[in-house]
Amino acid sequence: MNIDEHILGSGLWKAPERDLNSVLLDLNENQFLRQFLARFIATELQPQDLFTYPNYQPLLIELANYCKVPTQHVLLTNGADQAIDLLLRLLFSPGDRVVIPSPVFSFYYQMLDINGVTPVVVGFEKQAQGFVLPIPAVLDALSTSQGLILCNPNNPLGGRLETEQLEVLVEACVRQDKPIIVDECYFEYLQQSCLDTFSRVRQLFVIRSFSKYFGLAGLRLGYVVTHPDSVRELLKVRGPWDINHIAIKAALYCLRNQDHLRRAHESLDQIKGAIIEICRAHGIVAYGSDTNFLLLQDQDNGRLARAFAQNDIRVSHCSGHPHSFGLLHNMLRVAIPAKSDLKVFLMALIRGAGSVTGWGGCETGRSIVFTGQDGGVVFQDRTDLGCKG
């Protein structure tokens, strides 16, 4: 029996098994939409959503309006992972070389290996409190490669590419008639897209997801925005019923209730900013992010990671991330916790910083006040963190 040599030679990309009773901050899941999604479950779901096949057209129409493109430019996929799989199969052949600025979502490396495509890795560079992509190095690598993959904002780094950088890279791919895949799974946190300028470019393939901002990770729904000719070809390899009925209805509910979503995310922005401030006050390096997660620098002894583990908080340990050029050494990627988990998170954070003895020594006179969608206050003052005096 013959098995494809590229599959045999690739590693295994396995989803982690997790205790769902833990504080789950390791996979960048959206912690802020419990009430919003509970309302969807209570008011929108019907038995026929389980026993009938889905109708995709209503969602395609809504998404086209959301992306400001014609309907025929949009393809639904079973999560962004399927979009990655389909695009790499469509665009590249065994032996091709593809430029992929790194570190990046590791599933890309897996699918490139399976398809026999060589990743041409260009590393981000660390500067001050952020990470910078060397555009000349990308352009140089592109000249001897068959395409380019970008992630904007980047996962796991959290930062963005500037508009001018994106324009330079897209225009280079257009001139050379090479495909450019732009992963925009965190687009809603950034509100900057290459679709604003290049939505009709044939070489552009934008991947987006409902897993992050819209909080539908469990339903597996993503989409591709590209030229209609490419959509037609992608439909040949995507299954006719790969996206389920409940995912379609949930996505429609999200797109039709964006004001509610925006209000829910105001709390996320407040909490993210406060966590960065608290980290810096306690000597923890926290990198700014255009996403729903932060990168925190742990110490060599792993004290911060241990403090999270002791409090049953799951975070992503990034030291072993492939093609990271040492940028992620002792880095922890942490999704922004919901208000209900914030107290235990901050207690672990401060303990992991090692900047206090027991729970004393917190800055005097500091108040931490969060008002979210429901107007509730999470922490009124420092004593809510167990601080004394």
UniProtKB/TrEMBL annotation:
It comes from Pseudomonas kermanshahensis. Its EC number is 2.6.1.-. Pathway: Amino-acid biosynthesis; L-histidine biosynthesis; L-histidine from 5-phospho-alpha-D-ribose 1-diphosphate: step 7/9. InterPro entries: Aminotransferase_I/II_large (IPR004839), NHTrfase_class1_PyrdxlP-BS (IPR004838), PyrdxlP-dep_Trfase (IPR015424), PyrdxlP-dep_Trfase_major (IPR015421), PyrdxlP-dep_Trfase_small (IPR015422). Its cofactor is pyridoxal 5'-phosphate. Belongs to the class-I pyridoxal-phosphate-dependent aminotransferase family. CDD domains: AAT_like (cd00609). This is Aminotransferase. Residues 25-338 form the Aminotransferase class I/classII large domain. Keywords: Aminotransferase, Pyridoxal phosphate, Transferase. GO terms for molecular function: histidinol-phosphate transaminase activity. It catalyses: L-histidinol phosphate + 2-oxoglutarate = 3-(imidazol-4-yl)-2-oxopropyl phosphate + L-glutamate. It comes from the Bacteria.
